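Task card 7
Instruction: Convert sequence to structure tokens.
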Amino acid sequence: LKIGEHPGNVILGIWNTTADKVSLSVRSPTGEMVGRVPSKPDTFVQSDLILEKSSVQIQYYFPYESTGSQLSVVNIFNATPGIWTITVYGDIILNGVFHAWLPLTGFVSPTVEFLSATPYYTVTCPSTMFGSISCGAYDSTTNSLLSESSWGPTRLDRIAPDLVAPGDNVVGIYPGGRGVMSGTSVAAAITAGASALMMQWGIVNKNDVALSTYQIRAYLIRGCNRSTTMVYPNTQWGYGSLNLIQSFNLMREL
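Output:
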């Protein structure tokens, strides 16, 4: 983990599968070690470093209530700039896969980053939950994926995102008048609006009063625009780009 100047406190979450059990050690930029902390449920160990003003806290949670997996949390308080090394030891290994995440942008200093990161498995809550419609963002003028749009799949190997929606320079109404916004939040708002129109068609207009999220997701996926040069679903575009009118047109053929 590369930490730059004035990072403040840094938190890191490591998840492994239900069948596995891991334990951690931490090495600071000066080489000072927080030795391997035994992995026990609800363990809480904090070590103040001798040669640095930093303090390291390691916590284990398993089986975690929502998944049954193990969550290991590393807190580095007053983190020293430099390269921090977290070593993951296999206490019980049947699968061997683990994932480490930093907080979302805005909740951690931009000077903090993994030295060897992967863009995959970067979709975040709530789009990783079962029963949700997971949405990425793309530039509708160039038909290219937005760089800020996270890639799937999820840690539980669910395809994500389900689809992408416009998320670059989207015009909207602000308190002061017309404004422009970019990002996955805009794409999510557009997808939510499309879902609301689906609910109006089904529930308000009584075409399908039992319409559920699963059905709306299926209708939106079927109506997506897809390129002939791409294989779907994929971890960047999901099943394609949102096309609500095409979804409704396909529904008329059912």
